[in-house]
Amino acid sequence: MSSIRILSDRVANQIAAGEVIERPVAVVKELVENSIDAGATRIEVEFRNGGKSYIRIEDNGKGMSPDEALLSLERHATSKIREAADLNEVSSFGFRGEALPSIASVSRFTLRTRAEGWEHGTEIKINGGKLLDKKDCGMPVGTVIEVAQLFNSVPARRKFLKTDPTETAHITYNTRLFAVAHPQIAFRVLEGGRTVFQSPACENLRDRIAEIWGRSLADDLIPVDVSDPKTGYRLTGLTAKPGVGRSTRRELVTLVNRRPIDSRTLGFAVLDAYHGRIQKGRYPPAFLFLEIQPQEVDVNVHPAKREVRFRNDGAVRRFVLGAITDTLAAATAAERPQAEAPKLETKTAARVVESARPAAPSPSPAVAVTPKSGPSATISIPTPTPVATTTTATNTTLAPATKATPSWRLITLLKKQYGLFDTPRGLVMLHIRHADQRVRFERILKSYKDSAPPSQGLLIPHPIQLEPLASEALLSHLDLINAQGFEIEEFGRHFYRIEAVPAWLAPEQAEGFVRDMVDLLRQRGGSRKQNELVWEAVAKLAVEGSYRRNDLMSALAVQQLAEALLTCETPHTSPFGKPTFNEISWSEWERRFGKE
Ligand code: ADP
Ligand code: MG
């Protein structure tokens, strides 16, 4: 085989390569995709110097016959049926029969492959698009492709490559994504002889994640499986438990029809669903598979980047947001102690609960979910569990503590600001102040959702004088405020009398509270949704009066606080986005101590 043949379209290949193979990781992606398409159950990736000097992809897929092997290196040669219409299908990513010739045109390229039923394999060597050699070789069924000295013949492209560690990080990250997308395929990734990761074929996604990212991350995830019969969308996979956040979004992985995809639409939908459920500025780890009709996805974007556009972006966003929101709401509900509903003493409180029921969001994804899941979003109002604190003097919803065994058991109070709990999932450190704020906040919001929140008359009406602008602000909101459990009357120019306050507000705090509220109303008076403004202002102010480090809270009160927290709609963060508790799971302890 001494004849040297110049493959057709050599220049075209180099141009295509320059356009779409931006960096070594693009080569790895294309070759691994081919291996997956070839039905491989085992794929090995080896690379050196961030893939710049050497990449090897080996698979046990169906391989190619000698003719197919040669053909695969011709431009637009593809064994995958492709008609014009298919080009819009997400399953036709990539180069459309250009990957192998393009890669071979800008590297020292070796293909070795053997198909079932052939006694020997075929080895083809190409350098910068020139066929150097083709011969028989001995090998098992499957394909090995080696790509050395990438972009050697294209110095301009080489210049744009990043440092070895950066390119390495890209390859590592992307091969992990492939491994996640295909748990049933065994993967091994080596960098310069060192194993980066290795995972046998896994039964399921959780095992695969545990193999690659560690058991403790895998244990922090809950399953998602939601489909919408109307659109045919389906979302499956694993997503962070409420409260679990990470400092980067690297573990927020989205796949569309099993291909890892960068999608702002999906990313934002997921982050939105976690709003208020994890600390601000943190990202939920999640591995989410969206199944969608191929025609609904537009892949007519740069092929080297895994970006897609959805035909109906809004619908996809709403579906994903709704699916995760429902999954998280169900998980939060499941974590609540299985207590019988506590008896409520006041008629008003009981009515709050009843009237709230129909408003609870349906778990069905077909139902549109309010886009923002902050404290002011849709309500699934849990039965309020009372909490005794030292700072709220009066509380009509105060009722005897729940009788059922609590799922969190207080071990001790620490440093006057924490409660340490033994829970079914692990050890929990509760931040008393943040938790107290959350509980108060939701309790107040709840009473404000009701048209007539419980109110208490003051024995001696409290006079209050305001400066003109403040007076004006109060006057223009007076009806609204009075509809929220206050009774404030004007009885002279800039003079008012507080006759009654909402049940949750201690009478001695009434004046300061009204003054603060007026200030807030003045600051944010431009808003249209005045009603919401009032109760949000009220709730935020109210929590400012919550537990402080030097207040003394009894062990019983802290136990009750925890129980009340677990009935909250978004128990993991304070109204200001701070975490309310931190957990170290039992499996994490096991991991730290090591198995017996
Ligand atoms: P495409 O994947 O778009 O068809 P490629 O240039 O990536 O284009 O591959 C060309 C053809 O080579 C494929 O259609 C397939 O028939 C064959 N091929 C490539 N890689 C492999 C592999 N690892 N195992 C078996 N066949 C392969
Ligand atoms: Mg391909």
Fold and architecture overview:
- This protein has 596 residues and is α+β, with helices and mostly antiparallel strands.
- Helix content is 34%, strand content 23%.
- It has 17 helices and 23 strands.
- It has helices spanning 10-20, 24-37, 66-71, 99-105, 155-159, 164-181, 205-213, 215-219, 264-273, 313-335, 347-356, 432-449, 468-482, 510-523, 530-544, 555-566, 586-593, and strands spanning 5-6, 42-48, 54-59, 108-114, 121-127, 130-137, 142-148, 186-191, 194-199, 221-228, 233-240, 252-256, 259-261, 286-291, 297-298, 309-310, 409-414, 418-422, 426-431, 455-465, 487-492, 495-502, 581-585.
- The strands form 5 sheets. It has a 9-stranded mixed β-sheet. Strands 10-11-14-12-13 form a 5-stranded mixed β-sheet, with helices on both faces.
- Strand 18 and strand 19 form a beta hairpin.
- The protein is elongated.
- Mean pLDDT is 79; it is low at 1-7, 81-95 and 338-404.
- Bound molecules: adenosine-5'-diphosphate and magnesium ion.
- Adenosine-5'-diphosphate binds next to helix 2 and helix 4.
Helical content stands at 25-40%
The biggest beta sheet reads: 9 strands, mixed
SS content category: alpha+beta
**Beta-strand segment tally:** 23
The 3D shape can be described as: elongated
* Unreliably modeled segments: 1-7, 81-95, 338-404
Which range does the strand content fall in? 15-25%
Overall average pLDDT: 79
Radius of gyration: 31 Å
Total helical elements: 17
Physical arrangement of strands within the biggest beta sheet: 1-6-5-4-7-3-2-8-9
Distance between the termini: 61 Å
Which distinct ligands sit in these coordinates? adenosine-5'-diphosphate, magnesium ion
Q: What is the oligomer described by this structure?
A: single chain
